[in-house]
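Q: what sequence does this backbone want?
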């Protein structure tokens, strides 16, 4: 029996509808959720992604601000722009579109603590914002949201394997699973006995950045396979890190590429912005 394909587009539509309902309630109280998106340079793909996020904002009733900076923007100038937005109480979410040009690539660590999800997820930081829930990074919450919708957040004590150790995807995804009380193993392309480790996972998250890296013999029968990879194949099409045909023969649930995690990531960005506005209003 083949796996059930998790429809990221349908889940994203439901998530954006939820965000839109929250926006209407907030606006009835005079609160206008706002997402600011910073684009540095004129990367054509990035321009497409930013337009998509602005369209998502419009669908949900969220105000959007688009800040376009020249490609020669220095890292200090970019950080100053981020700080200005972080200090603006009318802005509830800030997104810096990646990739950045070489002059702007220093790690953006100056954002306001209430808007810094990844670091606080790691540190479990206490302080003036300790009474607020962490706003989780959209990519990672978007990647796990399909599983949570299907299985009702059942992570406690179960075996999760993340293939990938990047600071953008792999490590934060593992931290998010740890926060849900799962037992987590982080693997990568050089892990010994990788096949055996992956085949023991109840949830397998693929974020290694290699087309078709996860094959059917790496999947536990009945597992949930979350494919975060986006790779442009020789055929010009988008492919995931998982060999979909092989994995789908053994998994219980699987996300496709495209149409899986990608739409959910954008939808969770909308929901995160709205939830940040809710918390700021308390």
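A:
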């Amino acid at each position: 029996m083949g796996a059930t394909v998790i429809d990221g587009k349908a889940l994203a539509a439901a998530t954006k509808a939820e965000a839109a309902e929250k926006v209407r309630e907030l606006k009835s109280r005079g609160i206008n959720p706002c997402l600011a998106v910073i684009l540095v340079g004129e990367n054509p793909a990035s321009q497409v992604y930013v337009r998509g996020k602005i369209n998502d904002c419009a669908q949900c009733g969220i105000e959007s601000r688009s800040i376009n900076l020249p490609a020669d923007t220095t890292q200090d100038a970019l950080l100053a722009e981020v700080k200005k937005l972080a200090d603006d109480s009318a802005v509830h979410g800030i997104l810096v579109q990646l990739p950045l040009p070489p002059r702007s690539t220093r790690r953006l660590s100056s954002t306001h603590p209430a808007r810094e999800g990844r670091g606080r997820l790691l540190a479990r930081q206490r302080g003036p914002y300790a009474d607020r829930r962490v706003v989780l990074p959209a990519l990672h919450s978007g990647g796990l949201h399909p599983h949570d919708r299907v299985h009702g957040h059942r992570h406690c004590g179960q075996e999760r394997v993340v293939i990938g150790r990047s600071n953008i995807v792999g490590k934060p995804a593992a931290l998010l699973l740890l926060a849900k009380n799962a037992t987590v193993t982080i693997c990568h392309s050089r892990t010994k006995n990788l096949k055996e480790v992956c085949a023991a996972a109840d949830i397998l998250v693929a974020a290694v950045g290699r087309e078709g890296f996860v094959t059917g013999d790496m999947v536990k029968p009945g597992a949930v396979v979350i494919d975060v990879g986006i790779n442009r194949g020789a055929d010009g099409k988008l492919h995931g890190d998982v060999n979909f045909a092989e994995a789908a023969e053994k998994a219980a649930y699987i996300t496709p590429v495209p149409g899986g995690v990608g739409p959910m990531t954008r939808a969770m960005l909308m929901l995160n912005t709205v939830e940040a506005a809710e918390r700021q209003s308390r």
